[in-house]
Specification:
Elements lengths: L5 E10 L4 E8 H7 L9 H6 L7 H10 L9 E5 L4 E4 L9 E7 L4 E5 L1 H13 L7 E8 L4 H13 L10 H17 L4 H6 E2 L13 E2 H11 L8 H17 L2 H8 L4 H7 L5 H17 L4 H9 L19 E2 L2 E2 L3 H14 L6 H10 L1
Parallel strand pairs: 3-7, 8-9
Antiparallel strand pairs: 1-2, 1-5, 2-7, 3-6, 4-5, 10-11
Helix pairs in contact: 1-4, 3-4, 5-6, 6-8, 8-12, 9-13, 12-14, 14-15
Length: 364
């Protein structure tokens, strides 16, 4: 009997060559009740693809609260796991694409694009209820079984595609969104990252079976691509995938965990090869190698990076004392990243920057 209970929304029907979709303008106070962002019924691998970066949702919410005049909200795209019924208004002078959309109440409604915006709007509304009358567009797609949703997420994850948010989010969103795109596109294409990255946490628990966090891979990749920001995003992603796949071949610690010959916890305790500062240093090393071998880096990459096999990544390595290990603990500072980068660059016979030279001199 549940199919007799329906939501009825006033919508505008729009069409592509193969399907219809429906656009509705919702008050924020209503949309906060309609979408709960409950992911418990969604498989873990799909949740990982759409995991919210909770760290900057409060920033977006604060911007919404403090800048009400300048807000032009970009629509939210939602896939509905049900057949949708559209009924035209049938009123004189009203186009046939205006009407009511009937959505079964027990249908799953999954956000495809706009999770962060929606979460920020809900938080802003909770803190400032008078925002409830402002409206935002939602685009509904019928997708029985949510097969198209999963396919589209896979494509976005694979190729780094995204729909950028409103212009007023630009200063607080673009850089983080750029990192998110890189991470989501690269991790599935690099074998060790695909199997050994925790996409949900920014800090790994002691008993975690993973070596990396998504954020550490994102930051390292941004360092790698520092000289390629003007390249097409797809080209940047391709460069990063090739580089990290090449690097992974020459760091035995990563391969040993992947093959099950040692645990991730043992590597994290006794080695620095998977720590965020080391990944960032490897990113900076890659940026330098790409700059030096700009014309033929694809051909030379594997051969050049083979020097990584000669590095002892043990915490006990004297070279890492006063570079990354201080009082028995790994430092996560930017200075530490620079010191590990200079160590790698010297190992590869690469020139140091003036800042790196000064840090090396101070270290002595």
């Amino acid at each position: 009997m549940s199919h007799y209970f329906e939501y009825v929304f006033p919508v505008l029907r729009a069409k592509t060559e193969t399907r219809c979709f429906y656009i509705c303008s919702f008050p924020i106070k209503i949309i906060s009740k309609l979408f709960f962002l409950n992911k418990e019924e969604i498989p873990e691998e799909i949740r990982a693809q759409q995991a919210l970066d909770n760290s900057f949702i409060p920033e977006i919410a604060n911007y919404i609260i403090e800048n009400p005049i300048h807000q032009v909200f970009v629509e939210i795209a939602a896939f509905v796991d049900a057949e949708l019924t559209f009924e035209p208004f049938h009123k004189e002078g009203v186009p046939e694409d205006f009407g009511f959309l009937r959505v079964p109440m027990d249908a799953k409604i999954e956000i495809f694009e706009g999770d962060h915006r929606l979460a920020a709007l809900q938080l802003a509304f909770h803190q400032k209820p008078e925002l409830g009358e402002q409206t935002i567009k939602v685009i509904f797609y019928s997708d029985v079984g949510l097969k198209n949703l999963q396919y589209n997420r896979e494509q976005y994850r694979r190729y780094g595609l995204t729909v950028y948010p409103d212009p007023f989010y630009k200063t607080i969103y673009d850089e983080r969104d750029y990192k998110l795109i890189l991470g989501r596109a690269i991790v599935p294409e690099v074998n060790v990252f695909r199997h050994l990255t925790d996409t949900q946490r920014n800090t790994l628990p002691v008993r975690s079976k993973k070596l990396f966090t998504l954020s550490s891979i994102q930051n390292a990749t941004v360092a790698l691509l520092i000289n390629h920001k003007k390249y097409d995003l797809v080209d940047q992603i391709e460069i990063a995938i090739l580089y990290w796949n090449a690097v992974s071949k020459y760091i035995p610690d990563w391969q040993n965990v992947l093959q099950g010959s040692i645990t991730a916890g043992e590597i994290r305790r006794n080695k620095i090869s998977s720590h965020a500062v080391s990944l960032s240093a490897l990113g900076h090393l890659g940026a330098c190698l790409l700059a030096i071998h700009s014309d033929d880096w694809r051909e030379k990459l594997l051969n050049v990076l083979s020097k990584l096999l000669q590095i002892d990544w043990s915490r006990s390595n004297p070279e890492f004392q006063s570079r990354i290990i201080f009082d028995g603990r790994i430092s996560k500072s930017l200075t530490t990243v620079s010191l590990i980068t200079s160590y790698l660059k010297k190992h590869f016979d690469l020139p140091l920057t003036s800042e790196e030279k000064q840090l090396e001199q101070n270290k002595k």
